Structure formats: C-alpha cells, structure tokens
Amino acid sequence: MPIYHPSICTQRDPKLLVGCGAHILDLQTVVKDGILGGGGGGVIAADGGAQKLDLKEMIEELESSIEVPSVFICPISLEPMQDPVTLCSGQTYERSNILKWFSLGHLTCPTTMQELWDDSVTPNRTLHQLIHTWFSQKYLALKKRSEDVQGRVLELLDSLKKVKGQARVQSLKDLRHVVTAHSSAKKMVVDNGGVALISSLLGSFTSHAVGSEGVGILVNLDLNSELKKNLIQPTRISLIADILNEGSIETKINCTKFIKMLTEGDASTIENVSSLSLLVGLLRMVKDQRHPNGVTAALALLRTLCSNESIRKQLVGIGAVAKLGGALSGLNAESLESALYILDVLSSLPEGRLALKNCEDTVRNLVKLLMKVSEICTRFALSILWAVFKLAPEECSVLAVEAGLAAKLLLVIQSGFNPELKQRSAELLKLCSLNYPDSIFISKCKLTRTIQ
C-alpha cells in the first residue's frame, strides 16, 4: 500500500489545505483561489436542486485524462477520494483506505506517523462537496466538447453534400482536423454515412487537393470489410496512386497507410490495389531518406504487396533490387528488416537472383549487415547471399570475401544464434574457401580485425 509523504503542506495557502488538516472556508473562496477555476454556474447543485452526477463514474472517466489537484488525492492510495474522512491528527484520507490501515493493527496517522489518541473518523463533507463540484465541472465540460464535436462533424458532412471547388477542399480539411483531434469524431463519420460520402468524391476527375484531404480522413477511420471492399474501385485506387506520386510527404504517407489498411485481412485484394505507378511511387519514397517515416510506411506496404508473385516480378522488373540494396546502409532497424525481407522474397525468383548478382553494392551491403543489427536481419542477409551464391558461386564468393564475408561467417558460427543459422554460415564459408588456397583464405578472413 503506497504511503504519501507531502513535503509542501506547510507551504500552501492554509485555505486550500483540506488534506493537511486545515479548513476550507467555502466553495466561493476555493473558486476565487483557483482550484475550481471559476465558472461554477454550470455545476450541478449540491442541495438536491438538480440531479447529482455519480462521483465514482466521473472519476473513472476523467482521472486518466486530467490532472487532479493534490488536495483531492488520498495520501494512502494516491487516488482521488470519494468518501473523505478526517482523523484526530487533522489528516484526511479515503474512508476505505484508512479503515484498512486500522484493520492491519496500525494506531498511527499514515502521513505523520504520530500515535493517535482516537481512532474515530469524521466525514469531511466540505471536501467531498468540493471534489464533487470540481469533477462535475470537468465532466460537464467534457460532455459539452463531445457534443460540440458531434455537431461539427454533422455540420461538415452536410456541407460536403452541397459545396464544390475550394469550399469542398476546406470542408474536407476541417473534417480531417476534427477527426485527427477527437476519437469520438471518427465513429460519428462512419455512423453517419461519411465513408460513402467521401468515397463518392474520389474519382477519375477528382482534384489532388480533394483526394489528399479525403484520404487523410479515411486513413484515420475504423473501416469494416464491407466499407473497405466498396473503396477498392479501379478509379479510386488509380487516383490514390497518382496522389502518392505527386503529393506532399504527409499525403504520400497517408496514401501508403490507406492502401495497406485496405489489404489487411484479405490477401485477395492485394492485386486489385497494386499498380506499376504505385510500386514506382513507393520505391521513390524508400529512396528519399530525408523522411524516415515515409521510408518505413513505404517498405511496410511493399512487404505486404510482395506476397503476390506477379507483383514480385513487377518489382524486379522496375529495378527494386538495386534500389533497395542501395538504400540498406541508411535504414533504421525497423525499415531494414522490411527491406531485407523483401529482398529475400525477390531472391526466390530467378530474375531476382540475377539482379542481385549484378548489383555488387547490394552484396557488399549485405555482408556489412551480418552480426550488426539483429539475428533476424542476419538470417535474411544470409538467405539472400545463399541464393546469389547458388547462382554464381565463384563470381559472388570472390566479391563477398573481399568485402569481409568470411570473417563475419566465422563470427556467426561462434555466436549464440540458432543452429540452422550457424549451419547456413558454415555452408557459405565452405563455398567461399573453394576459390582460395588455405593460407590465402585464412588471411582473407581478417578475423582479428573483425573481432576488434
């Protein structure tokens, strides 16, 4: 049971020290001194003149989203008090907490640790009223904001049915801001036909400004499979691919995440959302490493798309192997794993292996990654190198050994990696040694320098 030791009680204004044994004069004084923040006219009356809100429910709904004044906190549980009681020492606690303290055999005040001459507790009605009033204000303000948000969503959806041109762009922009700022707005858009309305605005003749804002809204919504299915139409997907290629980095990321969202849970949709234009746009995002979030989003979608064989062939055909291989050295750990996964999948194709063999930079970068990032990245790198070695063992082994592969393989074999990974390393090491006499190969390993 946590014990609260207030170190600043004696430094506070005595009018506010409810939890430290002092006396609050009245609610008006507390409002004046700032705890309630004024504006008490909308608070539920404490005299029964209006329906009183349930304090427990308000605390449960508000506690995680607001900072509760310390004078409302029980020193034992460090949670807001619902039934505050005061001891003879002048300290105030939540009734259930202090009674539990007494039931454990303690006859002291938990805060001051002074011995109590009387274990009776006195309800602190002034503090209870203050706590209830404060939480009521916050609760009613929250509900009002929620109602305002809902009203704003309905207003903007209604506006979108009527306006055109720049006014439509502005309404979409306003709706996107509301949706991203308030979680309740997302459900309002879905429940009031907003998805179908926004989808109807995305077509062959839609301006990129409208499309960008529309996708910015849709990507933030929780869409069921039926809504996703209705969005996967050729004209809409084509528009999104165009926007992805020409929009701002924020728009590119939104389009990328939106297409990935459409494919989740239904692999059959992958071919429907993919196009050559989309693949080219994603590879451009990977190349532009000024925006790491864009790189991560693009690689995540490419990882999903390359589960389809025809898309894998398209990726190889547009030079994805060289582009991904050249980008490896500048990627963070998360992006690196996705890039290596994609290259590993592409290496399962004959044309993918050929592209890897012809890309010397990719081979060198793969060697550098061994034992450098994580076990899973090492596994992917070894798998890719193995695929290339099988295609052209003599040519690739010379290049890889010159890049330091033999030394890295020895380190993998001596590491704590799984046996399968060690076995693959031993097989690769054997292939590497075939082109060299023993004495020369040992010198090529450069093991001492690698360990250092």
From TrEMBL:
Domain U-box: 67-141
PROSITE patterns, per the entry: U_BOX
InterPro entries cross-referenced by the UniProt entry: ARM-like, ARM-type_fold, ARM_PUB, PUB22/23/24-like, RING-Ubox_PUB, Ubox_domain, Znf_RING/FYVE/PHD
EC identifiers of the protein: 2.3.2.27
Sorted UniProt keywords: Transferase, Ubl conjugation pathway
MF terms in GO: ubiquitin protein ligase activity
Record's keyword annotation contains Transferase: yes
A GO biological-process term: protein ubiquitination
Top EC group: transferase
A Pfam family recorded for this sequence: U-box
Highest taxon of source: Eukaryota
Catalytic activity: S-ubiquitinyl-[E2 ubiquitin-conjugating enzyme]-L-cysteine + [acceptor protein]-L-lysine = [E2 ubiquitin-conjugating enzyme]-L-cysteine + N(6)-ubiquitinyl-[acceptor protein]-L-lysine
Pathway(s) per entry: Protein modification; protein ubiquitination
Function: Functions as an E3 ubiquitin ligase.
PANTHER family hit by this protein: U-BOX DOMAIN-CONTAINING PROTEIN, WDSAM1 PROTEIN
Name of the featured protein: U-box domain-containing protein
Species this protein is from: Cucurbita moschata
Name of the gene: LOC111462914
